[in-house]
Amino acid sequence: MKKVAVLLAPGFEEGEAIVTIDILRRLDVTVELLSCADSRGVTSYHGIPMVADSTLAERSAELYDAIVLPGGPQGSMNLAANPQVIDFVATHDAAGKWICPICSAAARVLGGNGLLKGRRYVCSGELWRDVKDGQYVDAPVVEDGNLISGKGLGHVFDFALTIAARVLGDEAPVREHADHIYYRW
User: Fold this and answer.
1) How many CB atoms lie within 10 A of CB 181?
2) CB 18 within 8 A of CB 80
3) Mean pLDDT of the chain
4) Whole-number Å distance between alpha carbons of 143 and 9
5) At what angle do helices 156-168 and 14-26 cross, to 10 degrees?
6) How large is the average pLDDT for residues 28-38?
7) Mean pLDDT score, 128-141
8) Where are the domains of the chain?
9) Euclidean distance between the first and final Cα of the chain, in Å?
10) How far is residue 142's CA from residue 123's CA, in Å, rounded to a whole number?
11) Closest listed residue to residue 120, CA positions, set 135, 139, 102
């Protein structure tokens, strides 16, 4: 069974996280929520408390099929400043696993830590202007190698469905599911 880690730092964008978790779980992908704080409790960008399955510290040695990095101004800054997050992403990237930032996470977490490695990506707003390590593309979702990036909350369904298709290695069930939820993908 395929397994995806969603990294939650204080201030994460809850819509980006929840929709992605929902889509993946509907398609029978195992999703583990990993708190990047000292405890499993994490509060979102809009003050919604969530309880993660584990902390990143408890699962840092595990290898997942994909890592999802939700945005949120404070959430992405907290992810970017956490050395354990950077090591976790770098290890998965080196292993060829899917790295999936959305919104500000591509620019702040990957771009801010030399992890884009020249790949094409998308992020929210004008954050791309501060990134020296990748090629910004203005599109809803951008794929380059094992990197899948999403522009932001308004494109989260495209982002989540793309991750599901790549992790599963088959677009057919993903298209069926998109039709089932009345979403054109």
Assistant:
1) 12
2) no
3) 97
4) 24
5) 40
6) 97
7) 95
8) 3-180
9) 24
10) 9
11) 135
Q: What is the pLDDT of residue 163?
A: 98
Identity of the residue numbered 97? K
**N residues, the chain:** 185
How are beta strands 147-150 and 141-144 bridged, if at all? Answer: antiparallel
Q: Which tokens in the block code for residue 168?
A: 């599963």
- Going by the DSSP 8-state scheme, the letter that residue 112 receives in this structure is G
Pairing of strands 98-101, 30-35: unpaired
Given a contact cutoff of 8 angstroms between Cβ atoms, the answer to whether 141 and 120 are in contact is no
The values of phi and psi at residue 8, to 5°, are -110, 120
Q: Give the CATH superfamily of 3-180.
A: Class I glutamine amidotransferase (GATase) domain (3.40.50.880)
Identify the DSSP state of 146: T
Q: Is 82 left (phi over 0), alpha (psi -120 to 50) or beta?
A: beta
Tokens of 96: 């060829």
Residue type, 166: R
**Residue 184 tokens, joined:** 């054109």
Q: What is the pLDDT of residue 104?
A: 96
pLDDT per residue as tens digits for the range 82-133: 999 999 999 999 999 999 999 999 999 999 999 999 999 999 999 999 999 9
Torsion of CA 164, 19, 112, 65, to 10 degrees: -30
